[in-house]
Please model this.
Amino acid sequence: MFGLFKKKSEVDKLQDKYNSLMKEWHTLSSSNRAESDKKYAEAQEVIDKIETLQKQ
Model:
């Protein structure tokens, strides 16, 4: 109940973005390989940011 108004941390926001990018990547992987590769590259950038934040 008390977590209802809790703000998401930057890592949580990036994790959500990473998950959505990976879903898009998976969907595109069977239809458009070039766009799929772009989504995967974006997801890798996000995961690098997450790792950097977690090290701090």
User: Anything to note?
Assistant: DSSP finds two helices and no strands in the chain. The mean pLDDT is 91. Helices lie at 10-28, 33-55.
